[in-house]
Design a protein that fits this description.
binds NADP nicotinamide-adenine-dinucleotide phosphate; about 45% helix; 24 strands; 27 helices; about 775 residues; binds magnesium ion; alpha/beta; four-stranded mixed β-sheet; ten-stranded mixed β-sheet
Length: about 775
């Protein structure tokens, strides 16, 4: 057997540690390779344990597993020439047919996280400048520009050179049916509802154009007196690209919010706001700030001047306001006014009722895609100030997608909670390639400083889109290139064909952007249904989001599946909503990105990097991260490699891994949450065991079966000993030598504590 080949993830400036998975260097002759990304937090820790298993098993098929470091730490170092730019390298690779990348979740760094990572790296001896607080000089501005490239969602848009195919693998769905998770009962007199705007919002104000020829656009605010302010100088666009502009009319928003606060009070339900301040990081904190102001109108009438002068913004939430006003002479009066208003009601939904943290405290505490399904799973309830569950008015200002949640609520009110043991599935085909749709639009979102007209102009000076705006309105533009749209339509047809399932495009002909997409689908769909065998007989429809949802959930109750084909935002929402209802979590999803140029990007699960899990590991040497997402991604990656490089052994590895994952689920080997049960490391041991047993038992390749017979015996024969070795380390603190850039040797030692397991893997 060959030794597994693992390339160094190029975070390091010089010395290569000889321990851990980033240690073994180069075999450039390897026939085919899989790139496994080195990321952050819990998935990174899991990698220290799981990657040695993957490398050992893959080596038997001549497959090398290389790593590339795209962690926050490595990306910072790369900006200052202290490490290779692995992200740029992978971004280029993703555009080639050879790409086979397993992408684990990574931190989308906020400024505080960025500062913490810089501090840690400086402490490790890297010569990095501090993050400039208030950049003045050109030099400081250049430093900020570099750090800004690491900030926020900086990884996924670079790698996602394809659209998204997310679904529950059959084994996971079957497991959920035989082991249904709890679902709170729904009552027909539930008073829970979604409230959304009927005019003046992003939906209503949207205008959309299809670009005729490659061009460069600009976005300009023309003031009432004719003065021009350039909001965005250059937006390059391609022929066929869909460009939208829209705005939130803040006067209409405030009227709406005031009405909903009164409505919640009148109906005796909790008031709750649901936004996405993390991803929509320009528009949604502003909208959140309006929610806070609408809830405390007299407070801001009375003290608005003082708060502004002290630099206290409602956009940072009630939490930031209450802690900052301590220094003001009016501090006590302001705190009393807040308390009085909260007591007067309506009651506000709570994030933590024990600590008195309301839904209005922190803009990013309540994130719509996770919070709405959690509410629906909990009988339509959120938690009130008294710590008890209660019916809720869920306020989602923009009406583009709010109707989806109202449709689910009405269905539950009429028919009761869903039954995970019988319900069907709603997989998703999502448009996201080349930064398609909303998430790419932060750099094109503006809080309007003065009354006037926002114009989107082409290079010739023609006005393509214009809106009359008032100060404070939130205006934004959004781009979607044509090639990704064509690929998305094709992927929908391919999935519908492969699964024999109806597919529904969730698009509203009354929305400007959607109307343009519907026209393009009219053009591209016949091409793809004709080109894909059996394509003509498929059930493919276009329905507005709320109707598409109603159609899909009616089927779900009958145990039927329906593919949701959506834009980027609904991709995010639906791949939390349906998995959480069907499976209890979105962490168990298969998440494939078929790259437009033929390669494969395999994302692991649909969750993030679970920072709480790292705290627990450091405190008590227990990692509750579930690697199921990695298992599914690996099987899909091996399968892709088998097909693209004609490697029969890789196909056997993929098939046996798939069966091993089924056994893993049936035997309940996912990590528990408490000490004394197996954690992430134990779950890797069991996967390795079941996988080796499947490989030893298969009859397609006798040599491979032979090789794995010894491993299966060494693992199976020592099950008790290995589990005991893994459990023995739990309960005391663990030292991994860093948070953003752990020490390889230390982290590897912590994550591979069973000598017996390590010896068994060394057989290969
Ligand atoms: P999160 O990491 O998904 O965490 C939310 C909770 O989900 C966790 O605390 C954990 O619950 C549970 N969870 C998620 N994945 C799990 C897994 N594989 N095994 C077990 N439990 C799992 O979301 P977040 O706190 O909003 O985001 C954390 C970071 O991840 C942020 O920096 C965010 O930007 C990033 N993120 C990255 C991606 C990506 O790269 N694709 C996607 C989303 C978020 P318990 O604590 O109850 O165990
Ligand atoms: Mg999500």
């Amino acid at each position: 057997m060959n030794l597994p080949t693992v390339l160094l993830g190029n975070a390091r400036s010089g010395d290569l540690s000889e321990v851990g998975y980033r240690s073994v260097v180069t075999d450039t002759n390897a026939a085919a390779s899989i790139i496994y990304t080195h990321t952050d937090e819990a998935p990174l820790l899991a990698t220290y344990s799981f990657l040695p298993i993957i490398s050992a098993y893959a080596s038997t098929a001549g497959v090398s597993v290389e790593t590339r470091d795209i962690s926050v730490a490595a990306r910072i170092l790369a900006q200052f020439g202290l490490a290779d730019d692995a992200l740029a390298e992978l971004g280029a690779l993703a555009k080639t047919p050879e790409a086979n990348i397993i992408k684990l979740p990574n931190v989308s760094a906020s400024v505080p996280q960025l500062k913490a990572a810089i501090k840690e790296l400086q402490g490790q001896g890297f010569d990095l400048p501090d993050y400039p607080e208030n950049a003045q000089t050109d030099e400081e501005k250049a430093v900020v520009a570099k750090y800004d490239k690491v900030k926020g969602s900086a990884v996924n848009p670079v790698l996602r050179e394809g659209n998204s195919d997310r679904r529950a693998p059959l084994s996971v769905k079957n497991y959920a049916k035989t082991h249904p998770h709890s679902m709170g009962a729904w009552s027909s007199d539930s008073k829970t509802n979604v409230a959304t705007m009927s005019s003046g919002d992003f939906f209503a104000n949207e205008k959309s154009v299809v670009i005729g020829a490659d061009d460069t656009l600009s976005i300009v605010l023309v003031g009432a007196d004719g003065t021009e302010t350039v909001l965005k100088e250059s937006v390059p666009v391609l022929a066929g690209e869909v460009v939208d502009g829209t705005f939130m009319d803040v006067a209409a928003l405030r009227v709406f919010l005031t009405e909903q606060i009164a409505r919640a009070k009148a109906e005796g339900v909790l008031f709750s706001a649901h936004l996405k301040a993390t991803m929509m990081k320009v528009s949604d904190p502003i909208i959140f700030g309006h929610v806070v102001q609408a809830f405390f109108p007299t407070l801001f009438e009375q003290y608005g001047e003082q708060l502004r002068a002290a630099g206290i913004s409602p956009n940072d939430g009630l939490g930031g306001l209450l802690s900052a006003v301590g220094n003001l002479p009016e501090g006590d009066a302001i705190k009393a006014a807040v308390a009085a208003r909260l007591a007067e009601g309506p009651e506000v939904a709570m994030v933590d009722s024990d600590k008195g943290i309301t839904n209005l405290h922190v803009p990013s505490d309540v994130i719509i895609d996770a919070s709405m399904p959690a509410m629906i799973r909990t009988s339509g309830h959120m938690w009130g100030p008294d710590g008890n569950e209660a019916d809720t008015l869920a306020v989602i200002p923009d009406s583009s997608y709010a109707g989806v949640y109202q449709a689910v609520i009405e269905d539950c009110r009429a028919h009761g909670a869903y039954d995970p043991s019988t319900m069907g599935s709603v997989p998703n085909v999502g448009l996201m390639a080349q930064a398609a749709e909303e998430y790419g639009s932060h750099d094109k979102t503006f809080e309007i400083p003065a009354a006037g007209t926002v114009e989107v102009r082409n290079a010739a000076g023609d006005v393509l889109i214009s809106h009359d705006v008032q100060p404070g309105d939130v205006w934004r533009a959004c781009q979607t290139k044509d090639a990704p749209i064509q690929d998305w339509v094709k992927l929908a047809v391919t999935r519908a064909r492969a699964s024999g399932t109806p597919a529904v495009f969730w698009l509203d002909e009354n929305r400007a952007h959607d109307a343009n997409l519907i026209a393009k689908i009219g053009e591209y769909l016949p091409q793809h249904t004709a080109s894909i065998e059996g394509g003509e007989g498929l059930d493919i429809r276009i329905l507005a989001p709320a109707e598409a949802c109603a159609f899909s959930i009616e089927r779900i109750r009958r145990g039927e599946d329906t593919i949701s084909v959506t834009g980027n935002v609904l991709r995010d929402y639906n791949t939390d909503l349906f998995p959480i209802l069907e499976l209890g979590t979105s962490a168990k999803m298969l998440s494939v990105v078929p790259l437009m140029n033929g390669g494969g990007l395999f994302e692991t699960g649909a969750g993030g990097s679970a920072p709480k899990h790292v705290q627990q590991l450091v405190k008590e040497n227990y990692l509750r991260w579930d690697s199921l997402g990695e298992f599914f991604a690996l099987a899909a990656s091996l399968e892709h490699l088998a097909t693209s490089t004609d490697n029969a052994r890789a196909q056997i590895l993929a098939d046996t891994l798939d069966r091993a994952t089924g056994t893993f689920l049936n035997e309940d080997r996912s990590p528990g949450r408490r000490l004394g049960t197996i954690d992430n490391r134990g779950s890797h041991f069991y996967l390795a065991l079941y996988w080796a047993q499947e490989l030893a038992g298969q009859s397609e390749d006798a040599e491979l079966a032979d090789a794995f017979a010894d491993v299966a015996a060494a693992l199976g024969g020592n099950e008790e000993k290995i589990v005991a070795e893994l459990l023995a380390v739990q309960g005391s603190p663990a030292d991994i030598g860093g948070y953003y850039r752990p020490d390889d040797a230390k982290a590897s030692a912590v994550m591979r504590p069973s000598a017996t397991l390590n010896e068994a893997l060394a057989i290969l």
